[in-house]
From TrEMBL:
Subunit structure: Homodimer.
Record InterPro entries: Aminotransferase_I/II_large, Asp_trans, NHTrfase_class1_PyrdxlP-BS, PyrdxlP-dep_Trfase, PyrdxlP-dep_Trfase_major, PyrdxlP-dep_Trfase_small
Protein name: Aspartate aminotransferase
Keywords: Aminotransferase, Pyridoxal phosphate, Transferase
Length: 423
């Protein structure tokens, strides 16, 4: 005789009756764009570089490396070790810290599943190994920064970063807020091409931030998602990290190659730690690498190889590297031209507001200063998709759509509420 299945209790059923998780705001906008049948639809929300034709860009050096690897008789699908591809890690560390610091033996660098896992590992190291209890994130910030912090058992705090009235970094507010942080707290910093504002600190301002970090004994975690794409120069864009290293501050850096190599779905990144001094009789860098590897084992175990092989080949081959660095300058040049074109189109239409910051900020993003209702009007009436805080991806503009976007901005500013601060 068949025994009846037990009936779950009410309390047991209620455990599984969960609410839907919040949708990622940026990916939700991208999905809405994909479902828009209008031929006029323009997507300037997702943080990916598009070429002048509006297509996902493949760097010439990446294509050459990809084809070379595919033709290799030694290519296989074996697991990488937990620490990933060593050649990629060493090339990444040299790119961030320079050859002299790399050769000093003070760096632990682990190949990760792009920048997001690099950040999770950085925060996990700070929380679980270094004993941090709170992490300070810029206001505004990339939404994933805010989401990741509590996932690593860290309390979230915010520091002022962007002055919406001046459309520039609020350096005094930033320093005041970080000056109240507790010893051992994490401060999450974007090294260049700040997302979402595009407003970066000058070198002298980074020195002031480094002074506060050093005085308060904070743990700086740098998010390096856009090296090369702020100024067009790899060395200039790493100024913030090297300023801290020169002052003898231990740093953690999460590096992504999604944007500056266009390896979005290959998920290529690194997390590295640079310590100021070697401890006599102890290999601190090796110990830190073992801690990162231990954390990675429980998170994803082994990173993917294909994109890492491409990135390592581009950076390690003199010809491919030169081709890549030249194309980075071309990419930044096109973004700069689109910044100028958008500003010119807005000023020519005499759109109310101040638009100088469009050409004064760096990287792929800028905050337009529109209200949420104006952003919604852009989507509904004009089929133009940007994030709710009016962040626009300049790399999504081209000669075929920049005037259309400017005309839409002009219409919503004229026919709806006065622009207000985003968040």
């Amino acid at each position: 005789m068949r025994v009846p299945d037990p009936v779950p209790s009410t309390s047991e059923r209620s455990k599984w009756d969960v609410l839907a998780a919040p949708r990622d705001p940026i990916l939700a906008i991208h999905q809405a764009y994909q479902q828009d049948p209008s031929p006029l639809a323009v997507n300037v929300s997702v943080g990916a570089y598009r070429d002048a034709g509006g297509n996902v860009h493949e760097f010439r050096a990446v294509r050459d490396a990809r084809l070379s690897i595919a033709a290799s008789s030694t290519y296989d699908h074996a697991y990488l070790p937990i620490s990933g591809l060593e050649h990629l890690a060493s090339q990444s560390a040299r790119l961030i810290y320079g050859d002299d610091v790399f050769e000093s033996g003070r760096i632990a660098c682990l190949h990760t599943v792009s920048g997001s896992c690099a950040l999770r590992l950085a925060l996990s190291l700070a929380s679980r190994v270094l004993g941090a209890e709170e992490a300070h994130v810029s206001l505004p910030a990339w939404p994933n920064h805010v989401q990741m912090v509590p996932m690593e058992a860290l309390k979230l705090a915010r520091y002022r970063y962007y002055d919406y009235d001046r459309h520039a970094v609020d350096i005094d507010g930033m320093l005041a807020d970080l000056g109240k942080a507790k010893r051992g707290d994490v401060v999450l910093l974007q090294a260049c091409a700040h997302n979402p504002s595009g407003a970066d600190l000058k070198e002298r301002e980074w020195r002031r931030v480094a002074d506060v970090v050093q005085q308060r004994r904070l743990v700086p975690v740098f998010d390096m998602a856009y090296q090369g794409l702020a100024s067009g120069d790899m060395e200039e864009d790493v100024c913030a990290v090297r300023t801290f290293v020169r002052k003898g501050i231990n740093v953690i850096v999460a590096q992504s190659f999604s944007k500056n190599l266009g390896l979005y779905n290959s998920r290529v990144g690194t997390v590295s730690v640079c310590v100021a001094d070697k401890v006599p009789g102890r290999d601190t860098a090796t110990n830190l690498l073992s801690q990162l590897s231990w954390l990675a084992r429980g998170m994803y175990s082994s990173p993917p190889a294909h994109g890492a092989l491409i990135a390592a080949k581009v950076m390690g081959d003199d010809t491919l590297r030169a081709k890549w660095l030249l194309e980075i300058k071309e990419v930044v040049g096109r973004i700069g031209k689109m910044r100028e074109r958008l500003r010119d189109e807005l000023e020519r239409r005499k759109v109310a507001g101040h638009w100088k910051h469009i050409t004064q900020t760096k990287g792929m993003f800028v905050l337009l200063g529109l209200t949420y209702s104006q952003v919604e009007r852009m989507r509904v009436l004009h089929h133009i998709y940007l994030t709710g805080n009016s962040r626009i991806n300049i790399a999504g503009l081209n000669e075929n759509n920049v005037a259309q976007v400017a005309e839409a901005i002009a219409e919503v500013v004229q026919n709806s509420k006065t622009p207000e601060q985003g968040c």
